[in-house]
Amino acid sequence: MKHFEQNESGVRSYCRSFPVIFKQAQGAELIAEDGTRYIDFLAGAGTLNYGHNHPVLKQALLDYIESDGLTHGLDMYSLAKQRFLETFNRIILKPRGMQEYLVQFTGPTGTNAVEAALKLARKVTGRNNIISFTNGFHGVSLGALATTGNEHHRGGAGVNLNDVSRMPYANYFGKDVSTIAMMEKLLEDPSSGVDKPAAVIVEVVQGEGGLNCASAQWLRGLEKLCRKHEMLLIVDDIQAGCGRTGSFFSFENMGIKPDMITLSKSLSGYGLPFAVVLLRPELDQWKPGEHNGTFRGNNHAFVTAAAAFEQFWQTDEFAQSVQRKGDRIRARMEQIAKRYSAHKLFVKGRGMMLGINCPDGESAAQVCEFSFENGLVIETSGAYSQVVKCLCPLIISEEQIDQAMDILDRAFADTFADKQVNKAS
Amino acid sequence: MKHFEQNESGVRSYCRSFPVIFKQAQGAELIAEDGTRYIDFLAGAGTLNYGHNHPVLKQALLDYIESDGLTHGLDMYSLAKQRFLETFNRIILKPRGMQEYLVQFTGPTGTNAVEAALKLARKVTGRNNIISFTNGFHGVSLGALATTGNEHHRGGAGVNLNDVSRMPYANYFGKDVSTIAMMEKLLEDPSSGVDKPAAVIVEVVQGEGGLNCASAQWLRGLEKLCRKHEMLLIVDDIQAGCGRTGSFFSFENMGIKPDMITLSKSLSGYGLPFAVVLLRPELDQWKPGEHNGTFRGNNHAFVTAAAAFEQFWQTDEFAQSVQRKGDRIRARMEQIAKRYSAHKLFVKGRGMMLGINCPDGESAAQVCEFSFENGLVIETSGAYSQVVKCLCPLIISEEQIDQAMDILDRAFADTFADKQVNKAS
Amino acid sequence: MKHFEQNESGVRSYCRSFPVIFKQAQGAELIAEDGTRYIDFLAGAGTLNYGHNHPVLKQALLDYIESDGLTHGLDMYSLAKQRFLETFNRIILKPRGMQEYLVQFTGPTGTNAVEAALKLARKVTGRNNIISFTNGFHGVSLGALATTGNEHHRGGAGVNLNDVSRMPYANYFGKDVSTIAMMEKLLEDPSSGVDKPAAVIVEVVQGEGGLNCASAQWLRGLEKLCRKHEMLLIVDDIQAGCGRTGSFFSFENMGIKPDMITLSKSLSGYGLPFAVVLLRPELDQWKPGEHNGTFRGNNHAFVTAAAAFEQFWQTDEFAQSVQRKGDRIRARMEQIAKRYSAHKLFVKGRGMMLGINCPDGESAAQVCEFSFENGLVIETSGAYSQVVKCLCPLIISEEQIDQAMDILDRAFADTFADKQVNKAS
Amino acid sequence: MKHFEQNESGVRSYCRSFPVIFKQAQGAELIAEDGTRYIDFLAGAGTLNYGHNHPVLKQALLDYIESDGLTHGLDMYSLAKQRFLETFNRIILKPRGMQEYLVQFTGPTGTNAVEAALKLARKVTGRNNIISFTNGFHGVSLGALATTGNEHHRGGAGVNLNDVSRMPYANYFGKDVSTIAMMEKLLEDPSSGVDKPAAVIVEVVQGEGGLNCASAQWLRGLEKLCRKHEMLLIVDDIQAGCGRTGSFFSFENMGIKPDMITLSKSLSGYGLPFAVVLLRPELDQWKPGEHNGTFRGNNHAFVTAAAAFEQFWQTDEFAQSVQRKGDRIRARMEQIAKRYSAHKLFVKGRGMMLGINCPDGESAAQVCEFSFENGLVIETSGAYSQVVKCLCPLIISEEQIDQAMDILDRAFADTFADKQVNKAS
C-alpha cells in the first residue's frame, strides 16, 4: 500500500472506501491480492455492464492483440473501427430507427464527449448558453464542469464556470410542480434574463445526482421546448446508456429523438476508455480535426465493443434479463425500505440503476462500509451521498444478486435497526 | 470505406491524408488491408515511441489479460497500478532526482491532464490567469483549449476562451529579442494589465506548433520569473516527453525543476489511453475525487507502461540510440534543406522530434502526399502546416530510417526541384 | 429636427415616441419649441419626482452657481458635499434608523452605482456569483447588464454575460408558487449547480420590468435566505426610491435591512446626474480610489439634493401626499381596466409607480401615441412593453392628475372600445 | 470634516491628498473654506480645461436655468441638445473634415462612453476580443475595466476580466522595439493564440498611465493594422481630447481617422457630467435604446459645451495659446529635471499634458505634498504614481504658471536637493 500512499496524489478517492489491492476480476466479482472475492455493485461506476473480463470479449481482444491488429491509429481508418461502425449501425442503431445518426469519435472519456457535444451545439446554433439541470453530472474538464451541478467538483475549477443556465430537473420541486412549464415561461419571456440556449443537456436517469428519473412525458415536454426555441437536445447517456436501464439507450420508447447523444463508460464493454457522440447528420458542421485528441482511435475498445454488440444485442433476450434482474433487486430494496420506513428510506431509479435513499450521507456511508467488510463493493451517490447505489454488472447471476442483497439487508439492519429516528429529516 | 463515409462524422481528419484501411502494425510499420506496408513517420502523433505492438509489451499485456487481471478499476488500488507506481518511481523518477513528485492519474488523455494541472494551479495559488505561449498546443477541451494557440481549434469552442494571457515563445520575435525580458517587464509593471498568473504552461519543444525549441537558458529564465512572481511552472511534456528528445523528460539537464509535468501519449508505451500529472508534494491540495473521471484507472496501460520502463529505461542505451538516430535523420534533412535552399527550407526540432520547414503549407502537403504514395506515412505541423514533421518510432532501425529518408528525398525533389521560388515568401 | 437626424446615432429612442423639440419644463409640464404644453407622465423615467425645475431647488442652484461654488471636484471635500452628507444623514437616514450607512459617491449614473455595489459584494465575500431576478433592470454597462434581464439590452453586450444566476421574482410563477422556497432549495442543495452567491440584487418594484411588486413577506424571506447563506442583500432603489412608492425608500416598513442600497435618478431632485451606494460600515472594504470616476463629485447635484431633502422630507406631509395622489390615480386606472375587462386589463404597481397592463405591446403603444397627440407624455414598460406606465412627478397637482387621466381614459377608449378581444391572449 | 469621516466610504481618495474643504473655484484657482487659494494643477483630472466656473459658460448656464430650460430629458429632443449638435458639427467636426461622424449620447461618464464603444465594436464585427494597451486607463465599470491596465483598479472587479488581449504600447520595450511589428506578427500568425479583435482601444497620450505618448507614425501603423485585420480603431480621447494637447482632438494632424472616438471630461467645459461616442456612420448599427441610461440628456452640459465651442474654438487662437503655455511649462520642467539629473528625472507628455518622471512614487508624493502645503494642488500618475503631473486649466495665465512652477521648483528642491541617489533605480 505504501506505493500509493507515498507516490499517488491525494485526489484518489474510491480506494479510500475499499482499501485493498485488487488483482483480478471476473464477471460480477473483484478479487483482492489475498484472494478475497467481492461482489461488485459499483461496476466501474457503470462501466462494466457486461462484467469484468467477459470471456467472449476477452477472447476477441486477445485474438486482436495476438494478430498485431492496429492498436493506436489516431483517427485513421482501421478494420477494427470499420467493424465497430458496421456492427453499431446494424445491431444498435438500425433496429431502433436511428441509422442516420453519425458517430463522432472523441477523446475516449465521457467528459470529452460532452465537451465535443457542447462545442458543436454552440457552433451550429451560434448561441453560447447551455441549459443543464440540478444534480446533473457531465464531467470535470472545464466545458463539461460548467454543466455539472456538484459543488465539490465545481469548486475544483479555480475559475468562473459560465455560459450555463441551471434549470430544475423533473420533480425537483415535487411531483406537483411542472419544471417544464417553468422553463417554458423563462424561455418565452424576453425579459427573463435567460439567454436563448444553444442546447439542453440532460440525463434520463441522473447517475451521480442520486438516481433521479425523468418520465417520458417530461422528456417529450423538454423536446417540444427544444424544437420551439431551436435549442438542441443532448442526451448524456454515458451512465444510463448501454443497457443499464433495460434498453440500449435510456430513452428508448419514450418518444423523443435527441439531436445528440453521448456514450462512454460501458460502450467498449470491457472497461476500456472509449466515448462517442452520436449526432444528426445535419448538425455535422465540424471542420476536419476541429475537435481532436490523441486517443480517439482506441482500437482495442472498437474490438471489444463490436464483440459486445454481437454477444448481447442481436436479440431482445439480454434487455429482458436486465428488466427481470432489476425487478428482483428492486423487490429486495423495497422490503428494506419498508422495514425501516420510520427513517423514510425509499427506492429510486430504473432498470438496473437502482438505489435506496437514506436520511443522510453518514448512514449511507455506514451501510456501504458494513457491506464492504462483508464482501460487497458498493457506493453512494446523490447531493448528500445519501443514496446507496446498486450498479452491478448486468450479467450478474440471480444467485449473486441474492447473495449481495443479503449482505445489503444486514448492512441496513446494522445501520438502522436500533437507530433513533432523526426528527429533523 | 463506405462505413466511414456514411456513418462517421466529418470531423475525422488524418484518414483524409491516408485514405486506406489499416489492419495491422508492427514496430515502425503500418500494414493496410491489402497488405501494403508503410513506414510510420507519424507514430500516433508521438504516441508510439516504442513502435506498434512491441513484442515485449504485447506479451506483458497478453499475460495480464489472460490472467483476468483487473482491467477497469476507477481509482481503486490494483496490482498493476502498484507496479506502475513502483517502476515509474524507481526507473524514471529516482535516477533523475525527481522521486518526490506525486502522480495524479487523470482521465487518460493529454487534454485531461492539462485540465487537471490548470485547475490545481488556480486552486493552489488562488489566481485565475494562466500564461501560455504562441503556437502552444495543449488540447481542445475547454480549459486546455484556452491555452492552445491554434485558431482552427479555438474556433471550435463556440464560447469565449478566457483567463489566459498569451506570451511570445522563445525566439518568437527573432533571436535578438528576449521574450523572457518582455514577460518580466509585463509582470513587474503593476499597470501592464497582465494579471498575476497562477501558472505558466510551456512545451520544451512545440510539437503541433511547428517544432519550435526553447533553450535551457530560456527555460531557466522562465523558471526564475515563475519563482519571483510565485507562478507555478507547468511543463507539458505530452508530446516531447517519454524519450522523444533523447531523454525521458524533454527538460532533463536543462537546470529547471517544474512544479507540474503532464505526460500522456507514449506513456503507456503501447498506444493505450493514459495520462498523468506529476506534481510537487506541497501542491497536492486536491480533495479526494475533486478531479475525477471514469477511466483514470486504465490497468492495461499500467501494465504496458511498467513493461516499457523496464525494457527501455533501466540503462542509458535507449536514450543514446535516440540521439544517434536523431543525428542520422537530421543529417539527411540538412542535405535536403540545403539542396533547395532557394526555397528557404530549414530544419527544426531536437532529438527525434524533427522537421523541415517549407515555404508554405501547400508545398509541405505535397511532400507528404508524395511520400504516402511511396510508402511513408508522414504529416505536417506548424501554424501554416508548413513543417514536414518526422516523428517516427524511436525503435526504428537505421535501415528503415534510410529507406524513409530516401522516399522523403524524392518527395522534396518532386515538390521543389522545378518549383519557382516564391518571391513573397 | 435635421440636426438630430443627420448627426445623432440611431440609438436614440424616447424622441421617436415624442417627436417634438422641448425647450422648457416646469413642474409636471414639458413645453415644446412651439409652446405646446404636455403633462409629463414619464418624468425622466422616474428622475423628476419633484418635477421639472422646482423653484426652491432652482434658486439654490442659481445661488450656488452665482457664488462660484465649486462645480467639479473629483472626490475632494467641498462645502456642498458636506451639506449633502449632513442633510442626508439628518433628514433621511437618521429618522429611519439608518444613520450608520456609509455613502459611496460613485460615477453619477445608476448603472455605475450598481457596478460599484456588485464589485464590493464580490470583493467582500470572495464569491463571484450574483443572484438577480427575472424582469430585473439594473443598467447596461457590462457588470450591471449581466444582472439585467431584458434581451434587447443583453443583446447589445457583444460578449457573454456571466457570473449571474437568474431567479424567478416574486409571483413569477403565479401567486401560489413561493419563489423564495424555490431559491431556498437551490441554495441548500450542494449539487444544484447554483454557486453560492456574493449577493442578491433586487428591486422592490420592478420599474422597467413592468411594475411587478415584491411583498414585505417575500422580501423578508429573501433577507432570511441572504443571512443563512451569507449573501449580501442589495436593494436597487434607483427607480422606486426617493419617494416614488410613498416613502423615501421603497422598502420602508417592510422589516428588512439591506446590506447595500443603490440610489440615483431622483436623488439630485433636479434631474442632475447623481448616484450613490449606501453600505453597512462593515462592508466598506474599498481601498482608496479602487472604484473611481471623474464625475463622482457633481456638486450641483449635491446642492439640489440637499435642498430637496429640506423641502420635502422634514415632515411626513410629502410622503402622505404621494400616497393620496397614488390612490387618486389608481382609482381612475381601475375604472379603465374594469371598463375594458374583456381585454384583461389590470392595474399594477404601488404608490405613484403605477401602470395598466394591456394584452400586448401594440395596444399599449397605441394608448401612448393617442395620449401624446392629446397632450400627455407617457411610456410603456414590461417584457413586452405592454404596461402603460404612469410615472408623473410626485408634486403634480390633483387637477393635472385629473386632466391627464381624462386623456388616458380617451386613449384607452380609442384603443379598446371597438377592439376585438384577442382570444389567444 | 467629521461628516466625511463618519458618513462617507473609505473609497474616497483625492481628498486624502488635499485635506481641506473647498467652497469656491475660479479659473485656475481653488478656494478653501478658510479663504486659502490654491493654484489648480489637477483640473479635475483633465475635466476643467477652461478652468473653474468660466464666466461666459457660467452666464450661459445661469440664463438657461433662469428660463426654465429643460434640465433632464432622457434622450428626447431639446433646443439645448440641438444647439450642441449644431455647434459641435459646425465648429469642431466640420473644420477638421469630420462632419460625417455621428454623435452617440451615452451615460454622462467616460467609462460609459467606453462601454458603448466596446459594445458597438463587438456587435458590428461579431468578434469578442479587444486589444488594449499596457498602462491604458479606460474606466472601472466592468466592460471598461477589462481594458484598463492598472492592477489596483482591476483588483476591485471581484470577477475575471476577460475578452481583452493586452499589447505593449508605443515604446513599451524601448525606442528600438517596434510594438506595431510585434502586434502584426501576433495578428498574422493563425496559431499565435491572439483571437482576431473587434477593435483596438488606444489613448494618444496615456493620462493615468504616466503621460506616455504615441507618435503619429506609430498611430498610422496601428491604423494600418486595424484596416488589414478588419479591427475597428477606437481612440479614447477622454483625457487627452478637448484641447489638452494643443488641438481639439489629440490625434489631429497625425494622419489617422479613428472609427470611434470617446469624449468626456472637459467636453461640457464646466465640469458637468457629459460623454459621447463619435462614430463613423456605417457603424451605427444600434437598435433604438439598445444602449441606454437615465442621464444621457444632461441639458446643462449641452448648454455649457456649446458655449465653450463658441468661446474657444471658432479660431486657432486658443489652440495656439495652449501650445505656447505648454512650451512655457515644459521649459521650466526641463530645468528642474536637469538640475536633479542624478536622480534621472525626465519630462513626459505633450501640449499641456506634461509631467516629470521621478525615480519612485514616494519622491513624487513628497513633491506633491510640499506643493500643496505651499498653495499648489497637483497629483501624480503612472504605474508607480511616479510622474508629477501638471494638468492645469488651459486658460491659466502666464503669471499663474510661473507662480505654480516656482512652487514646484521649491518642491523638487526640497525633495531631491540633498537626496541620495538611489543606485538601484
UniProtKB/TrEMBL annotation, chains A, B, C, D:
One of its GO terms (molecular function) is diaminobutyrate-2-oxoglutarate transaminase activity. Pathway: Amine and polyamine biosynthesis; ectoine biosynthesis; L-ectoine from L-aspartate 4-semialdehyde: step 1/3. PROSITE patterns: AA_TRANSFER_CLASS_3. The keyword Transferase applies. Transmembrane segments: none annotated. Its cofactor is pyridoxal 5'-phosphate. InterPro entries: Aminotrans_3, Aminotrans_3_PPA_site, Dat, Ectoine_EctB, PyrdxlP-dep_Trfase, PyrdxlP-dep_Trfase_major, PyrdxlP-dep_Trfase_small. Keywords: Aminotransferase, Pyridoxal phosphate, Transferase. Its EC number is 2.6.1.76. The keyword Aminoacyl-tRNA synthetase does not apply. Belongs to the class-III pyridoxal-phosphate-dependent aminotransferase family. PANTHER family: DIAMINOBUTYRATE--2-OXOGLUTARATE AMINOTRANSFERASE (PTHR43552), DIAMINOBUTYRATE--2-OXOGLUTARATE TRANSAMINASE (PTHR43552:SF2). This is Diaminobutyrate--2-oxoglutarate transaminase. The lineage of its organism: Bacteria, Pseudomonadati, Pseudomonadota, Gammaproteobacteria, Pseudomonadales. The gene is ectB.
